[in-house]
Amino acid sequence: MDYVDFFKSELKSSDLNSKIQKIALFVIRLDGVVLYSNEVKPLDKSKESIGALAAGLWQAAELSNNYLETKSRDFRLSFDTSDGGVYLLPLNLNGDIHLFGAMIQDQLNLGQIKNLLRRLRDKVEDNCINKNESGEDEYLFNDITDEEVDNLFSFVGK
Length: 158
What we know:
By secondary structure, the protein is an alpha+beta fold. It is built from 5 helices and 5 strands. It has one domain (about 5-150): Beta-Lactamase (2-Layer Sandwich). A 5-stranded antiparallel beta sheet has the order 2-1-5-4-3, with helices on both faces. Strand 4 and strand 5 (about 95-105) form a beta hairpin.
């Protein structure tokens, strides 16, 4: 299951649906291209502009962070009031960093919404790792012996 299908199925779950059904959610590449949007206002009409602005905001925050002496890499970006705002999280999809974002408005418990979004991001990352059918990581050469490797390169230098 790819991350878009996973997002759709998770967003329909009873725990999330009632709390974030009116929140504009999106996944963008670091260059601002929108890969997923749930088409909730304001994303229904201007998702390309919002994607570009969110990516630029994230990159500016990362550059500003270079001046800090911190080793933590679990950053998130939040520009909000007590009932809404913009929330961005890094989303690692098989080694490629994307941004998972939300545009939130008219919420009573913003902290709870942010926690739900972090949990959703974590679920997506955990469920979208490339695995083979047995659930193990795939390798190009699983059962190759040292002798076979030597034979592969035996022609070199002849």
